[in-house]
Amino acid sequence: QVQLVESGGGLVQTGGSLRLSCSASGRTISRNTMGWFRQVPGKEREFTAAVRWVAVRQYVADYADSVKGRFTISRDDAKNTMYLQMNSLKPEDTAVYYCAAAAFGRNGVTADEYDYWGQGTQVTVSS
């Protein structure tokens, strides 16, 4: 079992930045595919970013087109933590952001690939 806890959400103005953290416990996540999704009321959970292990100390990141060039996903396996650095935020980035863990080898771009989810953290971008 893996427990995930997000933090770092909040209210920010358009153009601002936030860094979300996802702290994992229960076991190490160093080989897991990890991802961020976001959801607004009335819509399905939307893929945002994912990072998967490919070799020792080598990871590959994928991003939704809507966040490419603005968001950066990273991980610190020594801390069993994943991050999402969000820059140049826009009002349309407003959502609840969830972190998730999937089994080793999954690409992680669809929600059904993930086995564990955090409770979510609210990000609100004001115009």
Provide keyphrases for this structure:
mainly beta; seven-stranded mixed sheet; 11 strands
User: What is the SS-derived class?
Assistant: mainly beta
Number of H/I helices: 0
**Global Rg:** 14 Å
Question: Judging from the principal axes of the Cα atoms, what is the shape?
Answer: globular
| Mean pLDDT score | 96
**Amino-to-carboxy terminus distance:** 40 Å
Roughly what fraction of the amino acids lie in strands?
over 45%
- DSSP summary, beta strand count: 11
Task: Report on this structure.
The chain has 127 residues and is mainly β. It is built from no helices and 11 strands. The chain has strands at residues 3-7, 10-13, 18-25, 33-39, 46-55, 58-63, 71-76, 81-86, 95-102, 114-117, 121-126. The radius of gyration is 14 Å and the shape is globular. The model has no long low-confidence stretch (mean pLDDT 96).
What is the fold's blueprint, element by element?
Layout: E1 3-7, E2 10-13, E3 18-25, E4 33-39, E5 46-55, E6 58-63, E7 71-76, E8 81-86, E9 95-102, E10 114-117, E11 121-126
Parallel strand pairs: 2-11
Antiparallel strand pairs: 1-3, 3-8, 4-5, 4-9, 5-6, 7-8, 9-10, 9-11
Short description:
The chain has 127 residues and is mainly beta.
